[in-house]
Amino acid sequence: MSAAQDAPAESRDRSPTGQSSPTGPAGSGSADSRTPVLSARGMVKTFGRVVGLDGVDLDLYPGEVLAIIGDNGAGKSTLIKCLSGAYTLDSGELTLDGEPVTFRVPQDAREAGIETVYQTLAVIPALDIASNLYLAREERRTGLLGSVLGMRDRASQSVQGLGIQTIQNMGQAVETLSGGQRQAVAVARAAAFGSKVVILDEPTAALGVKESTAVLEMIKQLRDKGLPVILISHNMPHVWEVADRIHIQRLARRVAVITPQSHSMNDGVAIMTGAMTVDGNDSNKETAA
Hints:
The protein has a six-stranded mixed sheet with strand order 6-7-8-3-9-10, sandwiched between helices. Strands 2-1-4-5 form a four-stranded antiparallel sheet. Strands 11-12 form a two-stranded antiparallel sheet. The chain has nine helices and twelve strands. α7 (209-224) links the parallel β7 and β8 (229-232). It is globular, with a radius of gyration of 19 Å. 30% of the residues lie in helices and 25% in strands. α6 (179-193) runs parallel beside α7 (209-224). The protein folds into two domains: 3-113 and 196-288, P-loop containing nucleotide triphosphate hydrolases (Rossmann fold), CATH 3.40.50; 122-193, no CATH class.
C-alpha cells in the first residue's frame, strides 16, 4: 500500500494536530496499570499535505495480541511502518521496555527485537526454508557445510516449536510451498528473532480456510510463549478470535481501544466507520454518530 493510499483522503488538506488520546485506552474505562513492552505517544507522520498519522497513541503489553483495525486509508500500514523503522516519525515518542528508542531504518527495529511480517512476506522463492529463516542472519561455522547444516537444524527447531506440522524438509525451496506454508515460514522467522515484539500485517490475506486456521494457531502459540503480537487484519472474525485488545484507527487517528468481550464485531465495524463513537472515559457511553 502506498503512503498516499494509506493516508485518509478526507485529511489531505489539513495539517496534523498532534493531539493525543486521553490517558489510558479510549473506550477502556481506565488506564492500564501494567507496564507496556512497546509504547507510542503522539505519533505524527505526514507525506507532504497527506496526513498518515495524526497524534496516535499505542500500548502493547506482554503476552497479548493487539489487533489494529480500520478502513482503507485509516493509517494502519503507516502505523506499523513507523513502529518497525520503515518510516521515521515527524514527531512523537516510542519507548521499548520503558526506554526511549528511535528507529531510522528497519534494521534498528530488528536489532531491538521487533520483527515484522509484511503482506508481501519478503521470502525469496528460489532459496530453501532454512536460508529464508536466516536471511541476512546467516551463521558461519567451521567446515564447508557447517553453516548450512547448522542453520537447517535450528530452522527445524523453530518451525517445530510453533507446532507447524506441514513443513518437514528445511532444504525444500520456498517456491514449492503453498501460500499458507510460505506464511508459516515468514511467521517462524519473526518468532525466531523477534525477542520483544512480532508485527503481522494481514497474515491470513489470500489464504484458504485451513491455511488461515493454521496461521491463527501460530499467533496463539506466540502469545502463549509470552511474546506480544500486533495483528493488522480486515478479517473481523479472525480478529475477534485471537485478539486480547483491539486498536481502532479512523482518519489517521486512534478512535478507540476495545476488547472482544466489551464490544461485538458489529460495534467494531461501526466505530471504525464512524457510525458509533466511544467516550474515552466511559466505555458504556456510546452514541450514534
